[in-house]
Amino acid sequence: MAGITITGIGKRFGATVVLRDVSLTVEPGEFVALVGPSGCGKTTLMRIIAGIETADSGDITIGGRAVTRLPPAERDVAMVFQSYALYPHLTVRENIAVPLAMRRLSAVQRLPVLGGLLPGARARRRAIASEVERAAAPLGLAPLLDRRPMELSGGQRQRVALARAIVRRPAAFLMDEPLSNLDAALRVQTRREIVEIHRAAGVATLYVTHDQAEALTMADKVAVMMDGALLQISSPEAIYADPASLQVATFIGSPRINMLAATADAEGRVDVAGLPVGLRAQAHSALTLALRPEALRLAQEGLPVIAEHLEFLGDGLLLHARHAPDGAAVIARLEPEAREKVQPGAALRLGFAPERALLFGADGKRVAARADARLVTA
Description:
The chain has helices at 42-50, 92-104, 121-136, 154-166, 184-201, 212-218, 236-241, 246-251, and strands at 4-13, 16-26, 31-35, 57-62, 65-66, 77-80, 172-176, 204-209, 221-226, 229-234, 258-264, 269-272, 275-281, 284-291, 297-312, 317-323, 329-334, 347-351, 358-361, 369-371. The protein is α+β, with helices and mostly antiparallel strands. It is elongated, with a radius of gyration of 26 Å.
């Protein structure tokens, strides 16, 4: 049975529609990243799955159980927040132990001194302590168990929050932008740790982020959300190379995908500003030709551009240019040695293999196209 299944979830706050008929399945052991711009409804959907918010319509199943009307405590999910949400007066050990103590110890057994003297309390406390140490060890928290949150770095606090979620052994993990407060280097390290934790636990994980790099590098599947609706759910490779709409194509990818106005004549030949680009499609008076920066290269024939400036990246070079006929911005990712051939203000040609181009109609949806015998590249 699916780890998490949400069907037809709708939510509005007053006159504002936040979620529009959202359906999504996260299989057992699967890592799904929900990515989209701020305000698109990602966190609201996460809170609805956790039971913190109530949906206006739709159903939720977790671990094969219908949980739509259950309170958060009965949904068997562990949630990791952006803000860590640690208890400042408790040690790392005690913070991690909180969900186990709440489940296994009575209110009296949880008392600091008296609780440990009650029948059965010591054995339960020893079992909890053992599980806490097992959850802390893979995250490098063993030497920090007796510290308090104020004595930890941001990355260490995030690991404590992860350990607290892991120790519960839930039916599903919900992670709401857990790396947003970390610096760039620590984000890279921690996202690797999260993936390793997920694989070891084998639990369905839904990970909310606005950072496409996190979504593409961590997830088995990526779900792209905008304006409260899911636009596409697919593998990271398909989301990047085969986007279903112009919205997805422009949101995913850094630098942003290039977009040029194009048309297809009665015979289906696609051209940009009168230049055939080696594609055939159904006749359209208004098309958008989209090209990833890495699909472009310097050529003898191709799109005419005027170079504006260069960005040296060490292993590559970003050429910022303008499409000569209409002034549209164009970015090409070139080899470092191209720096000797390109100067600001120079008139250049950028070629590409037609099969790497994407076509979209006036409605933003993909238009089927095939490569023609005539190529743009020299």
